[in-house]
Amino acid sequence: MLSEDPKRALVLSGGGGRGAYHVGVLRFLEEHEWFPDVVVGTSIGAVNGAAIASGHNAHSLWALWRRLRTKDVQKPNWNPFSAVSLLDTTPLRDTLLNDGWLDFDRINSPEEAAVHLRITATEITTGQLHIFSNSLKNKTDITIEHILSSCSIPLIYPHTNLGETLYWDGAVVANTPLSAAIAAGAEDIIVAVMTPLPGSGRSTPGPPSNLYEAASVTLEWALLASFQADMKMFDLINSLAAIRDEFNRLQADYPDIVNQYMQDMNNFVGANIKQDYKRLAVPLIAAPEDFIPVEQIVSYTEKWHKKLYQMGYDDMKRAWQNAGRVVE
Known about the structure:
Number of helices: 10
Number of strands: 10
Distance between the termini: 28 Å
Strand content: 5-15%
Oligomer: single chain
């Protein structure tokens, strides 16, 4: 059953075939009795988030990932001159519908959904980020099309139609949409991102040797840039909350410019900073220390699933320790 007072949010970034990383993060959190009330997912994060909303835990989700292969996700597009993508994701649709990954009846039931789910996708014609939810006031009945829309990596995978609207991967605009977690009311936010944070990487992606790798490297930097923008947004909102608290303490009227900044942020985040927003601790961020090979975005092998699963576990453990939390 959905929590009526969601406090914990897990934000799962995009990254394609690297998605087993999320499962390692989830395993560590479950071992430390940290269970999300809200899951925000982009791209492969939307797949894993929907699986969690369907009732999967780290153990059962890992069982699915261990069996997942490239052929279960994509196949070559044999009409490259008439198509808009290099690969066809028909196999992914079949896998998610038929191999036990998702239970849409449960996802869309307030009584049975395991978590509040937020899925992001980018509207192609406007560049606007859309957030689809199983629990907002303007609730969406989540379908396979919503999952696939969030996974539609430009150039690599085909766009997805939702009615008459065309969508690409949510990571085009926001790879780690913290605003969706904030608007849900979360106060304890954990982010799993599969690109090293600035200053932590000991390597850089090598020069691309083919079209697949060129598109992947482009996505890599887009993912990092959107994450940095999200963190700046988080800091700005906390600064506005501090200004709000000080004016409240002084019982003074807000200057017009402060009111305008707050209104702009209200529109962006979807929450009322004056009334609803609490100053939050900086999110815990699980991120790799080095770049993961770019080809892993479109490659699904047991060898790399195991590496990424362990990497996610270890990176979450390091972030947990660095935040001063006790490791059992």
